[in-house]
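Protein in question quoted in full.
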Amino acid sequence: MYAAKISRWCALALTCLLAAACAGLPEGVLEPTGKTATGATLLPIMVATTRAPSTTPGVLYGGERGTNIDLTEIVVSIPPDSSRQVGQVQWPKKLPADPAIDFSTVSVTPIKTIDAGQNWLRQHRSTNGRLLIFVHGFNNRYESAVYRFAQIAHDSGASATPVLFTWPSRGSVFAYGYDKESTNYSRTALESLLTAAARDPEIKEVTVLAHSMGTWLTVESLRQMAIRNDGVPSKIQNVILAAPDLDIDVFRVQLADMGPKRPKFTVFVSRDDRALDLSRRISGNVQRLGQIDINSAEYSAALAQEGITLLDLSALQAGDSLNHSKFAESPEVVKLLGDRLIAGQTVTDQQIGVGEKIGAAALSVSNTVGSAAGIAASVPIAIVDPATRRSLGDQGARLGNNLGNAMTGIVPLVPGQPVRRCKTTSTDCLPINAP
């Protein structure tokens, strides 16, 4: 009984911390000012949403569910680099915002037809034809998702056209159940957006970046798409799951249902993620994918087999008190996103493999990975990718004790071989032999 009381107290304390972390943001920041500042960056974003419109000026959309997929262009002004810190959203303390020091909204333009949406994509096409779709997580207001994605797109320096998919989150820590159902409500809408992107001849490849509960929405939409079309379209090449609030057992089945025609997955995990602690407690105490221990023997076989790369951010220190948004707030990780992951490149040198800790110095524009001598760099990130399984033995012999616990090994998802539940006539189905 005493242990149960302690567990409830911890969950309550974490809930209060979550609420405090999200409190105090100004309302109405999306009221367009038409102004920017010298040295500021203007970033146009296409926003697709399943939220219901709001009548409150500068809010645009609230947390209730809409009946349509609405499209809007929002141009965000990001203050000069000299006035801000990479990885942070500089929220205005009062309105109207000062574009010299604050994020601010320059213009808001509804996109009312499919043709208008296609025209917008053509006008803002990146030189490489890459599209970056961001799906936010739990407890996010519309404006929070817009500004956070603007920060990520700007700070990463990724060469990609930015598109935000925002679903009906009430922006309250006490609305976890509602938010989870809202992701299910939005599955087909996100699938439609992904399908339209895959069919657009101007778009050459699609990367999806999803955070927290948004990873559930993303993986479910891809699973639904794969079942409907016997695989995910090849243009959707890369999926990055940051702090995924995903039941690891369910994720295994989702992957199996997608079959072999699926994107490459990269997953950011952190054992000290306090938000996922709470999620695990209210979800049957089942391990969340974003919090797995990559040294655990429990996941000893499947990761390399499934071609999934894991990046363990547990040793990173970021400004997020919950350790739930390291992917966006750590300058090193944001740079890694822009330099390599959004572009679909491998994180590690193919000959070196991984199982090393690399730091800020290794995350340079040259896209090189430091040798063992470079592991002393300041901000460690443990990386495990499929190449490690092939070369782990040689790595261990060569680096020995110099790497210590940094030699993390393979991070499988489940023991045994996952399978796809699909038509028996399909030639790419695996036999049903999962445990």
